[in-house]
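Predict the 3D structure for this chain.
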Amino acid sequence: MDWEHLDVNPQVTAALKKANIKSVGDILTFSIVDLQRITQLSIPDVQHLQKAAALTVQRDKKAITAFQLYTDKASFPSQHQKLSLGCSILNNFLRGGLPIVGITELAGESAAGKTQIALQLCLSVQYSAEYGGLGAGAVYISTEDSFPNKRLQQLIKSQHKLRTDVPADVIRSIRFGDSIYIEHMADIAMLTDCITKKLPILLRRGQIRLIVIDSIAALFRCEFSAKDAALKAKHLQSLGAKLHYLSTSFNTPVFCINQVTDTMKETDSTLKHMGLQEKKVQPALGISWSNQLLMRLMVSRTQMTAPLPHTGGILRIMEVIFAPHIPPSTCYYTVDLEGVKGIDAI
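Done. Predicted structure below.
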C-alpha cells in the first residue's frame, strides 16, 4: 500500500508501517482501541486515521445507497433473485423464496416436515429462473439417516400436480433424479473435506446451485461433549466461513437442517401450582452457529388436520425467527403425496 495517498501526517504513516498494516481495508476492520494498541498512536490520531481511510475507500470505490440496492434489480441480481420453494403461498410468505446468497437454517422437531422441504427445494432449483429455479442441480449431504430416495421419486412423479404454474412439457424435459448428488457424511472431517474439495468442483462446472445439509447438528453432537464448547464453537465458525465462501462465490443458497433442544418454561399460575412446566424447543448448536446464519426458520406440527381442500395432512407451522428482509411471522402448511403446500388462512 502506498501510504502517501492517505491524508495523514508522516508520524501516522510510520506507525502503520511499523505495525505491518498493509491496506486501508485493514484499518477499517479494527476498533479504535485495537488500532491504538497496535500502532501506539493517540486517540485523536486514530480517529483521524479512520476517517481518512473511509474517505479513501469512498473515493476509490463508488458508494451506493441501501435504496439503490433495494430498487436496482438489474445491477444487483443476487440481492433480489430467490429460489422458489415450489409453492406460491410459501414463496409469498418468504418474500419470493430462499435468498440465493447466505445460509438459511430450518430447525424443528422430528416429523415436522424439514426433509420434505429440503427435497422439494432440490427439485425446484432445477427449473429455469422463469419458474423460480436456478437451472442447475443440488447436492444433498446426509449426516443422519439414509437418503429418502423413495419419497424423492414420489415427489418427482407428482411434479405436474404440484407445479401447475409450469408447462407440462417443461416438467417432462427435466431429468430431476440425475441432478441430485447425494453424499453421506460420518464425521466432521468428512464433511469439511466434501465442502472444501468436492463441492467447488461441482459448482465451477455449473452442475449444482443448491447445497443441503441434513442435519448440521448431528455430527457436532456426536463428536463434542459439553466440556468441548470452545473447540466446537471454533469448528462451527470455520464451517460457516467455508459455506459462506461457496455461497457468495457461486451465488448458491445453503440450506441447513438443524435439530432442536428442549427447554422448560413455567406457564400459567395453575400449572405452576401443580409443579408443571411447558416444554419449549430451541435450535441446537447455540450462538456460535446462529451468528453464521442469514435466515432462521422453525417448523412444528400441530394436533389439527389441515382444512379442505387439503385432505389427510397434519397441519404444520413455519415460523420466521430472524431474517434481514422479513419480520418474525408464521405460515401454515401441510405435506401430502404431491409435496409441501402452504395454506393461506385457517
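The longest strand covers residues 295-305.
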